[in-house]
Amino acid sequence: MCGIVGYVGDNKSLEVLLGGLKRLEYRGYDSAGVAVLDESGSLGTRKRAGKLQVLVDDLADRPLGNGSTGIGHTRWATHGGPTDRNAHPHLSADGKLALIHNGIIENFAELKAELLAEGAEFTSETDTEVAALLVGKAYAESGDLTEALRAVVQRLHGAFTLLVMHEDQPGVVVGARRNSPLVIGLGDGENFLGSDVAAFVEYTRRAVAIGQDQIVTIRTDSVDVIDFDGNPVEADEFEIAWDASASEKGGWSSFMAKEISEEPEAVGNTILGRTHDGLVHLEELAPIGDAALKDVDRIVIIACGTAAYAGMLGKYAIEQWARIPVDVELSHEFRYRDPILSDRTLVISISQSGETMDTLMAVKYAMASGAHVLSVCNTQGATIPRESHAVVYTHAGPEVAVASTKAFVAQVTALYLIGLHLAAVRGTLDEAAHRSAVDELASVPAKISEVLEVSQAEIGQLARWMTETQSVLFLGRHVGFPVALEGALKLKELAYIHAEGFAAGELKHGPIALIEPGQVVFVIVPSPRDPSSLHPKVVSNIQEIRARGARVIAIAEKGDAAVLPFADEVIPIPLAGSLFEPLLAVVPLHIFGMELAAAKGLDVDQPRNLAKSVTVE
After folding, report:
1. Are residues 197 and 305 in the same domain?
2. Under 8 Å between Cβ of 164 and 151
3. Which stretches of 495-617 are assigned E, i.e. beta strand?
């Protein structure tokens, strides 16, 4: 995905754009660019491959005008490599119109062929330049920037957010969106556009989300929204729940380090206000209704990556408490296999950003199939919540590091709350058990804080002696299995080494062949107090791999003496019920992924080839 910011107002636009792009850089960081109208009204652009700082340094050496109108872009490459010429903005044929774009124009080849036949010249390899030339051509015919963009978006297929400005229309920026995020920031004598609220939260906490297939025109003193057919649209305003300081490092070595430290707060804020007299009640589910929830005979959780692992933990809890069968499916596979859905199916989507394209399209499919759709999301005004029947926001605060940490524990917490609400509605959990689960969940933030306090230094030391390690395996059973998958994903994302998570019971069905002397294996050990008796089975797994030369790092409950003789290292976690242990056990794995990457000298916040969320299929 890409980061987009637009501005009109009395401030110096370049300063606003660069500040917004800095907060949006997590959305893409292989190139960046800006277009501004200078004090004389001339359009100036500058764009550079590399991280945002490359552009900032270039602007310091070769200053650009700093008028009151501008657009800015930070890119995650899709069409065309990360080069200066492929960076945005792209210009119209006469050089007077600048355009930036997030998403993919699927029919760009057909449109490009049409333009080439008319004699157009292209300077980049991107699909975006097609849109710039088309809007420039339409503006030459109409003389109206909004109408020009409206005429062009009717012809575009795919997912896109477009922002345009023109030298002949100072004080005007026009944006359009389809299946890609765009939010308005409302200021005093100034207005903003952004791919999310981080673009302008430094200046205002008043925001308006743009709906599907809508166009917005901002001026210093007005905001007008129409649909692609030209009809006026009333948009709903909301207040941003955090301020600009929440998206700053605040003295931490990385955003990831800061966000791991905020995991207790993320869990606590997600619980806050959602329990009454010791029981869970989610008012957010009212649009679906208790009668429909009581009638649900199946739940499908759809998500990608880390969110899918959160969904797997949700499955265990919801099935145990609410006694409803739950499937967890990868969003990008879900709709392509013609799944069976009905009005008795509840589809729960999970997306930190609320803009994950695979999940959005799966949500649209579920809605069209007549299912009830509930989203779990961390971002106000995002597309997926607006496309769903109901939403449970996680309130984790902005997550800037690409590798998700606090969003994961918040998502699991939200799913547990949903599970307890469903259990209450369906009468499948007695009140004492419900209260006990709420008490356990309420104790999690303090227990995560204890894990952070006790284990951080030890894990950092482990990471430093493992900088040459090329492969790490993770084992877990029951709720430990998704934790193993999450731990492996973090190492892939951050340390660029082979890492795999396995269900420990699968060990003798093939994976044990990977064990050789020195192989590092993390094992998530269930509580010895667990009545399911999985603990001795996992200890047996540890003995099997240790006998074959593995170096075992166990994450185990404090006081678990049975593990000590067989593990090379034990990272203790506080006592918790079996469903709540994953919220504690995952924290050392988040820390380890970060520490190993840092020890190897890698960029913890912006790992190669990745962006914060994927807004193209």
Report:
1. no
2. no
3. 498-503, 520-524, 551-557, 569-573
Phi, psi of 601 (to 5 degrees): 75, 25
State the pTM of this model: 0.84
With cut-offs at 50, 70 and 90, classify the pLDDT of residue 38.
confident
Q: What is the pLDDT of residues 123-163, one digit of tens each?
A: 999 999 999 999 999 999 999 999 999 999 999 998 899 99
HEC profile for 148-187?
A: HHHHHHCCCCEEEEEEEEECCCCCCEEEEEECCCCEEEEC
Q: Which residues are catalytic?
A: 2, 612
> Of 264, 265, 272, 319, whose CA–CA distance to 479 is shortest?
319
- Whether residues 203 and 77 fall in one domain: yes
Tokens of 228: 């692609």
User: What six digits make up the tokens of 389?
Assistant: 């029947």
Query: Distance (Å, rounded) from C-alpha 107 to C-alpha 130?
Result: 10
474-493 mean pLDDT: 96
Q: State how far the Cα of 281 lies from the Cα of 367, in Å rounded to an integer.
A: 24
- Do residues 193 and 315 share a domain? no
Please say which residue of 229, 246, 263 terminates a domain.
Answer: 246
Q: Which domain holds residue 100?
A: 3-246
Average pLDDT over residues 373-389: 92
pLDDT in tens, 566-615: 999 999 999 999 999 999 999 999 999 999 999 999 999 989 888 766 65
> The CATH number of the domain where 128 resides is what?
3.60.20.10
